[in-house]
Write a structure and sequence with these properties.
6-stranded mixed β-sheet; Jelly Rolls; 3 helices; 5-stranded antiparallel β-sheet; globular
Length: 286
């Protein structure tokens, strides 16, 4: 491992890092799109051209105690869970959702947390994500889950007539991500400090479902980006990821992230198993 000093925060000091490939989106005159299912005949699954870059991804454990969700866009929590079987979808909703709501509310000071979905990913080497008969796979393109438009739209999707009143207050989309088993060394999550992200780096992109069109940010490469990860993350640890914030006062708003191949992982590493919860987080107006 090598060492670097962050140009963003002098108190970061020298941190160990790995050099790893991240898959950005190349510049294009077309609006990016990706189908989440097999598209109509003659239509490409995606028009995104991948731009792969080798970048340093820093060990955040030495600075975990200094992280703030409103500054860099992510924090690491000690978060033991009472959940046993993450293969039981009903149990996830009945038990893990309330547990996670309490955890997010405590970590953010929110007045209300509403979980709107989750994804369990179980790595199958060589498998394509969203292919029939295959578990969801790690997301390997740098992205942000929501945009200026789709973050607010999520409130309207789930709260109907009450949405506009809720949108008068501060609203966030925050994911809670954890490994189902640890220590996790296969396809860990890379996190980009939002203070290193320029507005031109984020490209609104269509994510096409059978019944709706969502919008995410694809991300263009910028050498200023500062990337971090948690080596050998354990089951009793969780990451909070800020994917949207309605506040426009300089706080972190959109945090790029991606799975990546850790070049230091052994060849016989256990395949990644993880769960991410997506939530709307509300703060009162004023």
């Amino acid at each position: 491992m090598n060492h670097v000093v962050s140009q963003l925060d002098p108190d970061l000091g020298a941190l160990a890092h790995v050099e790893a490939a991240l898959h950005y989106t190349a510049a294009s005159a077309e609006r990016p799109f990706t189908y989440t299912f097999d598209p109509p005949a003659g239509t490409k699954r995606t028009n995104i051209v991948q731009d792969t870059r080798l970048v340093p991804i820093h060990d955040l454990r030495p600075i975990a105690g200094t992280l703030e969700l409103d500054r860099g866009g992510f924090v690491l929590l000690h978060a033991p869970t009472a959940m046993g079987d993450f293969g039981d979808e009903d149990a996830i909703r009945r038990y893990y959702y309330p547990e996670t709501e309490r955890l997010i509310a405590e970590a953010t000071g929110a007045s209300r947390v509403f979980i709107f979905d989750h994804t369990v990913r179980r790595r199958v080497h060589g498998a394509e994500d969203r292919s029939a008969g295959t578990p969801r796979q790690p997301a390997t393109r740098v992205h942000v889950d929501h945009t200026e438009k789709s973050g607010a739209q999520r409130v309207r999707d789930f709260f109907g007539d009450a949405a506009e009143e809720l949108l008068k207050g501060r609203v966030q989309v925050i994911n809670l991500w954890r490994p189902i088993r640890g220590p996790l060394r296969d396809a860990p999550l890379a996190l980009c400090d939002t203070r290193s992200v320029g507005p031109d780096d984020l490209v609104a992109s269509d994510l096409i479902y059978r019944d709706r069109v969502g919008e995410i940010y694809s991300v263009r490469f910028n050498p200023a980006h500062r990337w971090f990860y948690v080596p050998e993350m354990q089951r009793d640890e969780a990451l909070l990821l800020k994917c949207y914030d309605s506040a426009t006062d300089g706080r972190s708003r959109f945090m790029p992230h991606s799975a990546f191949e850790d070049p230091t992982a052994p060849a016989d590493v256990l395949p990644r198993e993880s769960i991410e919860i997506r939530s709307l987080v509300f703060h009162p107006a004023g």
